[in-house]
């Protein structure tokens, strides 16, 4: 599948959600779609799923426009954080309906995941707890086997054990059947190890699109006795520093792994902190 956004614009009455973004996604990978509230992530995913029309620019999937185009949308599954399914349907009916919607539907996987999440298929959507409804969304998203599967904060209400199960099956699924999986999340550190590519939206524009490895290789965390950390980071581009009881920890930008001295230790910077740094910087400039 080839997704190409070319100067893509989406304007609502009161906001311009996408301000002319250029983006290409072609490889089957797990993409992390990140950004602060209101950055435009959901708007982009809704345009890609054909729910809505762009206001300007172009969006193509395999050369076709997604809006109102079954040839595209049968290959794209978007699971939103809530209200994915009609409240009066039973879980069984939701799965049946989804099996008709998605040409690659995997009935056995849906049954396995129902078991895994311990979800009773006789229950109606309106009687599901928030976490159970999220689990149903995840089941549909993964069993759709859609070549483009988008999950927009799909874990609302899921407890830590269920989220861990979700990440595990997401990875297993991707490994057994690679496809474009776009995961939008605010729980960045919890899932950052899954991402192969990271796309950061900021105020309707794309701030960064990089492989997760590249992003990890451009920042380091140094920790140890406060005085040594201070000397070490002198002249370096420090993005965050914390101190406690005579020890310090500093995140700094560098393309080269630091050569350690004294009692200092080096590790990576959590992706969440990198995103905060990148989006704050942009915010400060705007
Ligand atoms: N249906 C709509 N009508 C009017 N404005 C909208 C609509 N949907 C989104 N917006 C506006 O577009 C901008 C982008 O919103 P969007 O939901 O795409 O951001 P997001 O990155 O998904 O945010 P979040 O992380 O909070 O979900 C925001 O200013 C939002 O208020």
Task: Give the secondary structure arrangement, pairings included.
Layout (H helix, E strand, L loop, with lengths): L2 E9 L4 E10 L4 E5 L6 H8 L7 E6 L8 H4 L2 E4 L11 H11 L5 H10 L13 H14 L4 E5 L7 H17 L3 E5 L3 H4 L5 E6 L2 E7 H5 L2 E7 H8 L3 E8 L2 E7 L11 E3 L3 H15 L1
Parallel strand pairs: 3-7, 3-8, 5-6, 6-7
Antiparallel strand pairs: 1-2, 1-4, 8-9, 10-12, 10-13, 11-12
Helix pairs in contact: 4-5
This protein binds adenosine-5'-triphosphate.
Adenosine-5'-triphosphate binds next to helix 1.
Would you mind describing this structure in some detail?
One of its GO terms (molecular function) is ATP binding. Keywords: ATP-binding, Nucleotide-binding, Transport. This is ABC transporter ATP-binding protein. InterPro entries: AAA+_ATPase, ABC_transporter-like_ATP-bd, ABC_Transporter_VariousFunc, P-loop_NTPase. Residues 3-228 form the ABC transporter domain. With 286 residues, this protein is of the alpha/beta class. The chain has two domains: 3-214, P-loop containing nucleotide triphosphate hydrolases (Rossmann fold, 3-Layer(aba) Sandwich), CATH 3.40.50; 217-285. Helix content is 34%, strand content 29%. The protein is built from ten helices and 13 strands. Strands 5-6-7-3-8-9 form a six-stranded mixed beta sheet, sandwiched between helices. The protein has a four-stranded antiparallel beta sheet with strand order 11-12-10-13. β1 (3-11) and β2 (16-25) form a beta hairpin. α4 packs antiparallel against α5. The longest helix is centred in the middle third of the chain and has 17 residues, at 160-176. It is globular. The model has no long low-confidence stretch (mean pLDDT 93). The site of adenosine-5'-triphosphate has 13 residues, from α1.
């Amino acid at each position: 599948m080839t997704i190409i956004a070319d100067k893509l614009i989406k304007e609502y009455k009161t906001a311009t959600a996408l301000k002319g973004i250029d983006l290409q996604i072609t490889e089957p990978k797990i993409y992390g779609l990140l950004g602060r509230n209101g950055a435009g992530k959901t708007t982009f995913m809704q345009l890609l799923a054909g729910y809505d029309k762009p206001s300007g620019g172009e969006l193509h999937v395999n050369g076709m426009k997604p809006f109102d185009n079954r040839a595209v949308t049968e290959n794209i599954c978007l699971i939103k954080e809530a209200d994915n399914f009609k409240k009066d349907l039973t879980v069984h009916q939701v799965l049946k309906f989804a099996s008709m919607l998605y040409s690659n539907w995997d009935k056995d996987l849906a049954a396995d995941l129902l078991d895994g999440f311990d979800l009773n298929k006789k229950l109606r959507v309106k009687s599901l707890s928030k976490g159970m409804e999220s689990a149903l969304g995840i089941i549909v998203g993964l069993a759709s086997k859609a070549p483009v599967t988008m999950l927009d904060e799909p874990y609302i209400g899921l407890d830590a054990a269920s989220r861990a199960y979700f990440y595990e099956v997401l990875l297993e699924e991707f490994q057994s059947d690679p496809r474009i999986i776009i995961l939008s999340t605010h729980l960045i550190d919890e899932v950052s190890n899954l991402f192969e590519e990271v796309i950061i939206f900021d105020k309707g524009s794309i701030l960064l699109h990089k492989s997760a490895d590249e992003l990890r290789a451009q920042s380091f965390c140094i920790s140890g006795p406060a005085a040594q950390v201070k000397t070490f980071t002198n002249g370096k581009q420090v993005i965050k520093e914390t101190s406690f009881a005579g020890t310090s920890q500093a995140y700094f930008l560098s393309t080269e792994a630091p050569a350690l001295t004294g009692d200092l230790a080096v590790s990576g910077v959590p992706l969440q902190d990198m995103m905060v740094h990148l989006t704050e910087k942009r915010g400060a400039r705007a």
